[in-house]
Amino acid sequence: MTTMTTMTTYTNNTNNPTGTERGGLDIKTFLDQDERKDLLRILTAGSVDDGKSTLIGRLMFDSKLIYEDQLAALERDSKRVGHAGEDIDYALLLDGLKAEREQGITIDVAYRYFSTNKRKFIIADCPGHEQYTRNMVTGASTANLAIILIDATKGVITQTRRHTYLVSLLGIKHVVLAVNKMDLVEFDQEVFNHICNDYRSFITQLNIPDVEFIPLSALKGDNVVEVSEKMHWYHGKSMLEFLETVHVSSDRNFEDFRYPVQYVNRPDRDFRGFAAKVASGIIKKGDPVMVLPSKKTSSVKSIVSYDGEIEKAFPPQSVTLTLKDEIDISRGEMIVHPDNLPHIERHFEAMLVWMDEKPMDSKTQFYIKHNTNTTKARIDYIRYKVDVNTLQKSEIERFELNEIGRVALTTVKPIFFDPYVKNRNTGSFVLIDPVSHNTCAVGMIIDKLDRENLATKYSPQELRDKIDKGQCLITTEERQKRYNQKGATIWITGLHGSGKNELAYLLEKELFELGANVVLLDGSTVRSGLSRELDFSPADRAEHLRRVAHIARILNDQEIITICSFVSPDENIRRQVAEIIGKERFVNVYMDATLEFSMKKKPELYKLAIEGKVDDLPGINSTYQKPENPDIVCNPEENGKNPVNIIDYLNREKIFPLQ
Q: Would 3-7+23-251 and 343-453 be classified into the same CATH topology?
């Protein structure tokens, strides 16, 4: 459970003026100025007991950002469950969960809001344990800056490298390395310099352009709000001063205009606008625009905000655009500048953080949520997994909870994206389980996938060889994964009037409703076209069934279940049919009806045969040979149960496994 505390503080201190008059300002002017302050989102990370929660608590305490009743409760809880000896345990301000207080660790992400004269802050205090990697990723997803704490007595450790890698992966450009517990090493400059040099050598392989190093003691308050005299050798800023002055506004992408439409705003018949949050770039009244995926163009007629019409909009403003032309635009589509388009692709590579307790199933077709667009996607393959502790790469077949790796994905319809390093808003996505609707993973798009790297693509020579040999470019495994079934032929044999056709049509309907890909072939349908020139002589009957067998084989090769309803009276011919189709895919179903039963069902046909007007009718003037070892025997009196029995057989044989 994520906790959020919003503080509006009116305490007497130099950072926060108080009262009806605040430094000569009336309350309305003060609130207007407060509203215009920019917001800095901060992530804190570090190993267990490095002092993340203590630092934030001390920051709020020394800045006079705590209510008196909160301070009294903090002093009381410090004596009862604190871990700071005789000192106040400032970590208790953030470790709100019972388990956190009992263990003295952070488990869930705790959010805290506070404000100074210069800036507003939201701090996400993230857990340090490896099993809570997904919690840290959640907290880091919106952060502008990361504070990574190091225990001065331990130096750069495995967790430090892991957290730094995650910060780099999530595109956070500003990092403060807070070397904490300097009081335990007598505020030694050499210890601080050694830790800084170790860290610099590590981050050279990562994409973090701005790193600041600050020595401090969170428990004692040194270099937290005020620069400490105990470290006279340090000439930098205190933690709070740095946080108030660090420049992050230029981190936003103001070059590539991306406007993922969230809602069509139609309050009356005279107004039709498209509401969304500007993901990146700048849009001005009169600018030419293009709508994706239709690629229809127009220009901006007006930009409407909460305060009325404005001349331009930029991130993170939420506005409504109206266009000069009537264009059909829906949620999930994107408005961009015509000369600056994102990638419009179905295939791309991404770094994936697995967040579901259930391991990844490569057969699953996930929902992908990308901005306001939702479609289906599959993971084609995992290129490698990254060990977040050592940065070593390894090959795996599936992801477990908290694992991170590089994957190739394919979506059902194209999405509009930029690489994550260029645009965090259009380069990130979420994978959702189609059954439980849990968030399975979060992803950061690396780039589109070149054709030669697609999972289903072959080299030009391989392609020519396969086509020349008539080999399909889609593997059997890929088809079975897509259809969730294996190709097989259900061959239903029996006398005319035995009920085999009724069974075939009922079975087709049942399988279709269960989601199977199924095709039905019967004697009258095939003889009206493919076998039109053939009669019912033994030779022509054999040729007729041979043709049917080859059609069934082709369909089975596509992993389609084929139902064939044919008298096929000769046992040898049925064996030949099974050879053509493949014995492992041939399911022989015998409709065990007596001649008397069949004659009652089709009296006209049998009457003509008895009178000699129809030749070669099995059971009358030609022989019908019962199957010697049928896979399934059906009773014609129970055609309501027969389809169920056949489906149970298909399930047991894993031809059509039921979920």
A: no
pLDDT bucket at 131, cuts 50 / 70 / 90 = low
The values of phi and psi at residue 473, to 5°, are -85, -10
Q: Looking at domain 343-453, does it have CATH number 2.40.30.10? A: yes
Taking the C-alpha atoms of residue 36 and residue 33, their distance in angstroms, rounded to an integer, is 5
Q: What are 106-127's pLDDT values in tens digits?
A: 445 677 788 888 888 888 877 7
- The helix/strand/coil state of 182 is helix
Instruction: Provide the CATH number for the domain formed by 481-652 in this structure.
Output: 3.40.50.300
DSSP letters along 508-548, please? HHHHHHTT--EEEEEHHHHHTTTTTT--SSHHHHHHHHHHH
Structure tokens at 10: 């009116």
| Distances, alpha carbon 500 to alpha carbons 175, 188, 369, 432, 495, in Å | 74, 92, 48, 44, 8
Q: Where exactly are the structural domains of the chain?
A: 3-7+23-251, 258-336, 343-453, 481-652
Q: Report pLDDT digits (tens) over 331-368.
A: 999 999 999 999 999 999 999 999 998 999 888 899 99
Q: Alpha carbon 165 to chain centroid distance?
A: 21
Residue 471 in tokens: 């080999």
The token pair at 363 is 């057969």
Whole-prediction pTM value? 0.66
Give the bridge partners for 373, in sequence order. Answer: 370
